[in-house]
Amino acid sequence: MDFIDKTVSDVEPVKPPPVESTSFKLVQDVKDLKELAAKLRDANEFAVDLEHNQYRSFQGLTCLMQISTRTEDFIVDTLKLRVQIGPYLREVFKDPTKRKV
């Protein structure tokens, strides 16, 4: 029960815009990762999905990160950017004022 946000009252769900009008960005280099971090700093909320592979590995690897704001979708190549993701995205993920779904 500690994970439930008790400060949120009954909120009317907001329908997403049509897929055709939602922009998409494939994030494969540091420049795009910087732009993504800036956009997430400006957002109040965002959704995250991770794809993980642990086949023949005890530790496993996060292979893909999908992030969506209300207006944009991003696919992050976590294998290519594995060293840079933490420095650029750590602060927005740690920020308790941002709602992560």
UniProtKB/TrEMBL annotation:
Q: What is the lineage of its organism?
A: Eukaryota, Viridiplantae, Streptophyta, Embryophyta, Tracheophyta
Give the InterPro entries listed for this entry. Answer: 3'-5'_exonuclease_dom, RNaseH-like_sf, RNaseH_sf, Rrp6-like
Domain 3'-5' exonuclease per the UniProt entry, residue ranges:
26-101
A GO cellular component annotation here is: nuclear exosome (RNase complex)
Please report the name of this protein according to its UniProt entry: 3'-5' exonuclease domain-containing protein
Record GO biological process = exonucleolytic trimming to generate mature 3'-end of 5.8S rRNA from tricistronic rRNA transcript (SSU-rRNA, 5.8S rRNA, LSU-rRNA); histone mRNA catabolic process; nuclear polyadenylation-dependent antisense transcript catabolic process; nuclear polyadenylation-dependent CUT catabolic process; nuclear polyadenylation-dependent rRNA catabolic process; nuclear polyadenylation-dependent snoRNA catabolic process; nuclear polyadenylation-dependent snRNA catabolic process; poly(A)-dependent snoRNA 3'-end processing
Residue ranges that the Swiss-Prot or TrEMBL entry lists as coiled coil: none
Annotated SUPFAM superfamilies: Ribonuclease H-like
